[in-house]
Amino acid sequence: MIAILYADDQLLFVDKPHDLLSVPGKGPANRDSVIERALCQFPTARIVHRLDCATSGVMVLALDASTQRELSRQFHDRETHKRYLADIYGIPVEAQGEAQQPLRCDWPNRPKQMVDWVQGKPALTRWRVLQRHRTHCRVELIPHTGRSHQLRVHMLALGHPILGDRFYATGDALAAAPRLHLHAQSLSVTHPLTGAPVTICSACPF
After folding, report:
1. What sign for the dihedral angle of Cα 29, 34, 39, 44?
2. Residue 131 three-state SS
3. What are residue 71's phi and psi, to 5 degrees?
4. Which of 104, 146, 187, 194 is deepest in the core (most CB within 10 A)?
């Protein structure tokens, strides 16, 4: 089973737990995933986008082919709005800013990604400090692009890896949390049938 945040005849919003794949991986041991669980309750569910396995939070699925096409277009054309919460190691000097490092796959170490100013694809993340603690702070992250591992690599590039990030954090930043402290807190799309804005939120679990 998977927690349902909202459902109608076209849209299905679910609350993805951390360490669950969005789609099945290779082999029967990696079959468990968001789409497999959703299909148990909604047999026509179709994947539209993905969250990293370690990331929790809001995902939207389509319940028919035309909705899948329209939602995929909205993601491709950057018409959706995504808001993430993260705990990052250290305290940035500024209260807010932008990360614009271009990204590409780190092929020898895939699925890890890396900054590459020559061959990387454009990427933009807007960030804002919400709470400051002694060794870390909570930030709001708004991705303008949707590159793989974008938020994780951009925070690392700023010198503030996300707590508990098993791919990119080391030392105290890795040991500070038992899971990746990255959560898709809200997602906004345009309803494919009514044209109305739909925003669904998920409470942060850490």
Report:
1. negative
2. strand
3. -65, -40
4. 187
> Quick one: CA dihedral 16, 115, 95, 177, positive or negative?
positive
Which is catalytic among the residues 15, 52, 87, 165?
52
Backbone angles phi, psi at 160, to 5 degrees: -135, 75
* Gap between the Cα atoms of 70 and 24, Å rounded: 23
At 116-164, the pLDDT tens digits run 999 999 999 999 999 999 999 999 999 999 999 999 999 999 999 999 9
Hey, what domains does the chain have and what are their CATH numbers? 3-78 (3.30.2350.10), 83-182 (3.30.2350.10)
* 52 is known as an active-site residue: yes
For residues 102 and 120, the answer to whether their CB atoms sit within 8 Å is yes
